[in-house]
Amino acid sequence: MSTGTDVLALLPEALLFLGGMVCLVGGSFTPRTRQWRLRLLAGAATLASLGAAGVAWMGEDRTAFSGTFTVDVATGAARVIVTSALLLLLVIAAGDLKDHPRESETCSLLLFGGAGALLLAGSTDLALLVVAFLLSSIPLYGLVGIVERPTSAEATLKTYLFGALFGILLMLGAVLLYALAGGTGYDMVRTELPGAPQAAIAAGGLLVLAGLLFKAGGVPAHFWVPDATEGATVTAAAFLTTVPKVGAVVAVTRLVGVLPGDLRWATLLGVLAVASMTIGNFAAFAQSDVRRLLGWSTVSQVGYLLAAAAVAERTDLGLPALLFFLAGYVVTNLAAFAVTAAEPGRRSLDDWAGAAAARPGLVAALVVALLGLVGTPPTAVFIGKLTTIAATWDAGLAWLAVALAVNTVASLFYYLRWIRATLRPETDRSETTGVQSGPALAAVVASATAVVLGLLAGPIWLWLT
Amino acid sequence: MLSLLVFLPLAAAAVLLLPSIGERLARGAFVAVTGIEVVLASLAWGRYDAPASGELALEQRVRWIPGVGSSYHVGVDGLSLPLVVLTTVVFLACAVFAVRESHRPRLQAALFLFLECVCLGLFVSADLILFFVFFDLSIVAMYFSIVGWGHGDAARSALKFFLYTFLGSLALLLGFVGLYVASDPHTFDMVELAAHPPLQGQGLAGGLVLSALLLGLAVKTPTFPFHTWLPPAHSDAPAIGSAVLAGVMLKMGTYGFVRIAMPMLPDAWRAWAPVVIVIGIVSVLWGALVAFAQTDLKRMIAYTSVNHMGYVVLAVGAAGVLADGADEARRVAVTGAVTQMVSHGLLTAALFLLAGSMFERTGDYALDAYGGLASSAPRYATLFTVAAFGSLGLPALSGFIAEFQIFAGSIATVPLTAVAVLGILITAALFLRTLQRVFTGPTTGLSEGFADVAPREWASVGLLLALSVFIGVLPRPLLDLIEPAAAAVAHLVGR
């Protein structure tokens, strides 16, 4: 296969990367008040990438660059989800970054991070996995710290240190598996590994998994998530809780699919999933800052996603359930973050008192987003959760299905706290900060999409199988 | 036909969200749409032909998520059609009752029309996922109704209501997934699942799935010991919220027993029937005794709901006990259970609306704050007395028809269930004592200057009570509708 067609297979990723480069360079030549042009350009590049992803989805499954990158349904879905998320993020960025000195840099980092996450999702080679991890992590550190605030320094440091640590673990694991399999390609891993010592396989697999869990923000590599969502800009917070997770969760699915002894890996992943859900939920109970609350909520949501990832290769229902859940989660979570971006003055739950009366449309979007995250029908997350429960049960992990349901009930409590706060009569709010129209629009669009995705689950499902 | 019936209120609710619609227009639209719904439901009854056992009439099926064996499948039979008609009537009564509402009437009308859509949708669903969608949305809508229009510690009660019933709904969902995973080919379709019940002869798995379903439905019904969310939710809910909650939404639990649990898990149901019967008896007695101890009118009515739903649980439990020559009795028990759902819906909705009238005038539900109300508000006293007598099971009212059949069927199958008759005795005592305390004697306390019922209250409560009397005097049209479907359920559970 020629290099030309190989490059073409990575066109959506390449377009994102190119767009990011142009933003980065162009930013230096554009006056600060005109940087919205570059945001527009970033949007155009993302749209082109989305189009290319759509065309690639129509085509047949294939691999590129000697089997290191695979284009299949999972890659296709990840591409569509990530590029759509980036489009929403560019609109959300209008809130806190319009005419900001770092506007164009943020846009390019968003695009780089998106490209990295997509490489992560499509990678079927340990070496490429390591590269993709770095490609998606480095923009992340930049995004968290790009706008200097008292809180962002701690968030950046924590993210960076965790990222560095888990990145090293991932490399270590990749090296171990490479040594055992005699090659880095997943094909080699699948065929050569069964003869290797069990303990070494377990160690290698665990280490790679740990690295990916950092990207996914799942237990035990989740500590940076709430700090980052609280300390960074809303745009960065919304990005880091959605886009890297898509890449990481799909990568976890691929990895677990090729490691020998799949039942034990599914069980292990299930245990980690339950830990994520439970710890995320219990930590979210006590939060009063809405962004920190959302940060912990994403930790619990990753738990549900990992549950789907655990059984993705084990039942027919698994992979479509995971991909649908990812799409639903990303759009719903973005809606919630967009709402906080639209009302930057309301940070604590108490600040949201009186919001329902003052901003009914925005609060309606918030209610849809929060109830959507709970998994209330007919939103997309409901279908995702339902099919995940069915898939885990079908795969023989009924305990995981029960844990999912119980955690869903637990999560209701803190989402409702926020909804209740908006319904309370307003207490003396002295300063009224202006509402950001861009993020408000993104919030309404995203929450509407969350409902529409759920209602159109049937046709979409056919695409995912 | 059914889809129009279900989604017309939703469309009306969407229009009412437009801020430019005035309050008068919104209230008028609320009454008009709920009125049209009653007409549509009556037309559906007119076009209804009893379907064969295990099938549905007025069916409609559209692909929804074929990948997971779920479709938009609706239809009615003798179990669901009475509840559909009941739902439209209760909502009409609520709309008429609320024509003087001054607190955000436009949003209230939109919310209740949305609630009507999900309640109707639930009763016509023939797909477990569709059923669950409506089940969950009804909880969300009722939560906002209590938070937005309730009084007292409404936010707290609403949260308790939401958490409790949401827990129940997820248990239910687990049960549904269990049925789905066990069926072959995998499906969520109720008709197919009832025709080919999965998990037959698999004691443990069937028992686990049934216990998940029972937990979910028992919370919603509610039965002892899962009833504790009900009294606070009722006492802090607005009058029409309480009427819908008690009149329509509690039936979702009991309807689930006859529609889902019994036909789809007959083996497990028979094995668990003794447990169900005991839960029913305890609910009957516990509900009656605790109601007897209440000093707050709304809490008292709420606990009588636990008692009344207990009869339904008792009857469906008894229908699961196979005995020689008891087939007829089991059919009678199921018929009684469905009749009781309708009867309780009418009477309790009426009682809650009357309690709401009382609160509007005085702001107090305390029973001992009143005395001799009959002389200052004779028409109010008349309506309340009729509703109370209906609720305690006096002949010539619908409660008697229902409870008589429940006991006739249950005692013939399981003689021990006769203990539950004590429940009737206690409710009779408590209603008579309430009537005596509040309405008779010299006019004292808050009864002084108590304005008698307004036309809107006459119309709404009168409509509900008139139907109850109609069923009590001429039960045949309703029983003709219910009996074939009840016989089908009794047959299915005996497989």
Describe the protein:
- By secondary structure, chain A is mostly helical.
- Chain A is built from 21 helices and two strands.
- In chain A, a hairpin with a 4-residue loop joins strand 1 (62-64) and strand 2.
- Chain B has a two-stranded antiparallel sheet. Chain B has a two-stranded antiparallel sheet with strand order 3-4.
- At the A-B interface, helix 18, helix 19 and helix 21 of A face strand 1, helix 5 and helix 6 of B.
Summarize the structure in short.
The complex is a heterodimer of chains A (465) and B (495). Chain A is mainly alpha-helical. Chain A is 77% helix and 1% strand.
Features:
heterodimer, A: 465 residues, two-stranded antiparallel ribbon, 21 helices, 2 strands, B: 495 residues, two-stranded antiparallel sheet, globular
Strand order across the largest sheet of chain A: 1-2
Number of strands of chain B: 4
The largest sheet of chain B, given as strand count, sense and whether it forms a barrel, is: 2 strands, antiparallel
Topology order of chain B in helix (H) and strand (E) letters: HHEEHHHHHHHHHHHEHHHHEHH
**Mean of residue pLDDT values of chain B:** 91
Main beta sheet of chain A, described? 2 strands, antiparallel
Query: Which band does the percent of strand residues of chain A land in?
Result: under 5%
Oligomer: heterodimer
Strand content of chain B: under 5%
| Strand arrangement across the biggest beta sheet of chain B | 1-2
